[in-house]
Specification:
The protein is α/β, with parallel strands linked by helices and 309 residues long. It is 43% helix and 16% strand. It has a domain of 144 residues: Rossmann fold, CATH 3.40.50. It contains 13 helices and 13 strands.
Length: 309
C-alpha cells in the first residue's frame, strides 16, 4: 500500500484530504508544527511527526519509508516571521531535498492558478518558483494549480462572511468584475484520490500539471451574491474605488484592532490581494471532467454543502 507523507495536513485542504484517506483506507504520516495540530491528523486516522518545512534540520528522517510526498503548505499573507520566499521557495526546496534522501517515488505540489515567474504578485511568483524546484528535482511529480478552493473551513469564504457581517452594507473594493472559478474541496479531493489510488506506475502516465476550477466563471460580485443568498442575508453592496481601498490599507489595520475589542472581526487584506481582485483567475470550465472523468459541482451547490457548518 502507498504511504503518503503530508505537509499541511492540518490546514483546510489537508483536513478534507485526510478524511478521505481514512474513508479509503489510505495511510498517511503528517508533518505538523505542534502537538495540537497533530491531534487534528490523529482524529482523521493519520500519524504525525513534528517538524517545519522552513527548518531543514527538523525534516531529517521524517520522510523515511514514505512513497509520496503531498506538499500542501502555503500562505496567503506575509508576516514579519514568515514570508512567501521563506515558505513557498525555501520550504519547498527543503522538502524536496529530504524527499530525494528518502528515495520518495512521487512528489505532489499544490500550486495556484496563475503561478508564473513573471507575475506581479509575489504570492504567484513564489508559487511558480516552487513549481520549478519540484520540476527539476529528479522525482516524478504532479502539480495541481487550482483557482479558489471552497468548502467548510476555507479562508476565502470566511473572509467574505466577515465582510458581509461587518455593517449594514457590504463594501467591495473596486468594481468586483474579476472572474474566478470556485472549485468545491470535495471535488479537489476526488481528483487527488483518482490519481493516487491507482498503483504508482499509473500515476506517472498522467499529465504532471493540472489547472483546476469549477464548472463556471463567476465574477466576485456574483460569488458574493450567491454567498449572501446561501446565508439568507440581504444587504446592499457598495463598491469602494480601488485607489481609495489602497489608501485605506493602513487605516484598516487600525480598525481591525479596534473592532477586536468589541468582538467584531474586520477581514484583513493586503495590497497584493487587492490587486488579485482586479485579475481574472480562470481556466477551462470542463477541465475536471476532461482529466478526471466527473463533472465538478457548481458554486451554488457547493455552498449548500457547507454554509451553516
Amino acid at each position: 500500500m502507498v504511504k503518503f507523507f503530508v505537509a499541511g495536513g492540518s490546514g483546510f485542504i489537508g483536513r478534507h484530504l485526510l478524511s478521505a484517506f481514512g474513508a479509503s483506507g489510505l495511510q498517511a504520516r503528517c508533518l505538523v508544527r505542534s502537538q495540537a495540530k497533530g491531534r487534528v491528523c490523529n482524529e482523521a486516522g493519520s500519524d504525525f511527526v513534528l517538524g517545519d518545512i522552513t527548518d531543514p534540520e527538523s525534516l531529517k528522517g521524517r520522510l523515511d519509508n514514505c512513497d509520496v510526498v503531498v506538499h500542501l503548505v502555503g500562505i496567503l499573507e506575509e508576516t514579519e516571521v514568515l514570508g512567501f520566499e521563506k515558505v513557498h521557495v525555501d520550504g519547498t526546496e527543503h522538502l524536496v531535498d529530504e524527499a530525494r534522501k528518502a528515495n520518495v517515488k512521487h512528489f505532489f505540489y499544490q500550486s495556484a492558478l496563475g503561478a508564473s515567474p513573471s507575475s506581479w504578485s509575489r504570492y504567484l511568483k513564489t508559487k511558480a518558483e516552487a513549481e520549478e524546484i519540484v520540476r527539476t528535482s529528479g522525482i516524478p511529480y504532479t502539480i495541481f494549480r487550482p483557482s479558489l478552493v471552497v468548502g467548510n473551513g476555507d479562508g476565502f469564504t470566511s473572509r467574505l462572511k466577515e465582510l458581509i457581517a461587518l455593517g449594514p452594507a457590504v463594501a467591495v473594493p473596486g468594481p468586483g468584475n474579476a472572474r474566478f472559478q470556485p472549485l468545491y474541496v470535495g471535488d479537489w479531493v476526488k481528483c487527488f484520490i483518482k490519481l493516487f489510488s491507482s498503483p504508482m506506475p499509473v500515476v506517472h502516465a498522467f499529465s504532471p500539471v493540472y489547472e483546476l476550477g469549477g464548472p463556471e466563471h463567476l465574477s466576485f460580485n456574483e460569488m458574493l451574491s450567491l454567498l449572501m443568498e446561501a446565508m439568507g442575508v440581504d444587504k446592499p453592496v457598495v463598491h469602494v474605488p480601488m485607489e481609495m481601498a489602497r489608501l485605506g490599507l493602513p487605516l484598516s489595520r487600525v480598525l481591525k484592532g479596534v473592532a477586536g475589542l468589541f468582538g467584531k472581526t474586520v477581514p484583513s487584506i493586503s495590497a497584493d490581494q487587492l490587486r488579485l481582485l482586479e485579475t481574472d483567475n480562470i481556466c477551462d470550465t470542463d477541465g475536471v471532467e476532461k482529466s478526471f472523468g466527473f463533472k465538478a459541482v457548481s458554486y451554488r451547490q457547493a455552498l449548500r454543502y457547507f454554509i451553516g457548518q
